[in-house]
Amino acid sequence: MNRAMTPASGASTIWIRTAAAVAAILVLGPMVWGLMTSLKSEVGAVSYPPSLWPDPLTWSNYGRVFTHKTFGIELFNSLLYSMGGVALALVVAGPAGYAAARFEFPGKRVLMLAILMTSMVPGVALLAPTYFILDRLGLVNDAFAIIVISAARVAPQTVWFIQNFVSGVPQEIEEAAVIDGASRFQSITRIVIPLIRPGLAATIVLGMIMIWNDYITVATFAPDIGRRTLQVALVNQVFDAIGMSWSYFMAFAIVASIPVLVLFIAAQRWFIAGLTAGGLKG
């Protein structure tokens, strides 16, 4: 039987909604301001006192972004590194996560903790030794080397995610498939993977966002203009000796955010389901 809302619970609900509204304003406020700035002329972007609404409204900054001579290669590199890194991480970490979920072996807990600890090492601490190795091997500015490094960054969390998702699938389902004549590979591809698809979607989205927004890896190991990404090009504008155009900068930042935003929206249903699926057993 439902109980009537008490004054205390009503006040609590009001405070929660107020806090949520304030948090939304704090998060969305800078985003709205950035969007409005991208639609201003350069004079309007630096005018005082500042105004939220662009007058006149112009789309020319977005035209400059898309027609810039290096935009196409920067977009291609961002897609290549993020998609390639996530794909390689899944190839390496997928079997490891499955094995951790389904098999028992000596030192398993220690090994899994060691894998988790590798993701806690700051990337900056590895820049110098990694650059030295790549330089000696002649792999500086090599796209495949960037993909491998990017995959290494997301592989530890991918192992743990997949282990958690696979553990949520009853092992009896696989055993029944084996009794019916299916091989281990068939039970994985036809039973386990379809059941953990939401979890895989969440893992892919998180990995893509992490690699897409990575600046320091590409800036350090691929300084050549032909190898840089949208994030590197965006940050480089801050250090441009000629001067910084705030309206163009904000248009570039929004364009650089659109691919991961579209990816998240497209996979939102699976992403949310994947984040909650790992906590369900049986």
Task: Kindly describe this structure.
- Helix content is 73%, strand content 0%.
- With 282 residues, the chain is mostly helical.
- Helix 1 (7-38) packs across helix 13 (246-266), helix 4 (71-102) packs parallel to helix 7 (143-167) and helix 8 (171-179) packs antiparallel against helix 9 (184-195).
- It is globular.
- The two termini are 30 Å apart.
Overall residue-averaged pLDDT value: 85
Sheet with the most strands, sense and barrel status: none
> Which outline best applies?
globular
SSE succession:
HHHHHHHHHHHHHH
How much helicity do the residues have? over 70%
The span between the termini is: 30 Å
pLDDT < 50 stretches: 278-282
Which class best fits the helix and strand makeup? Answer: mainly alpha
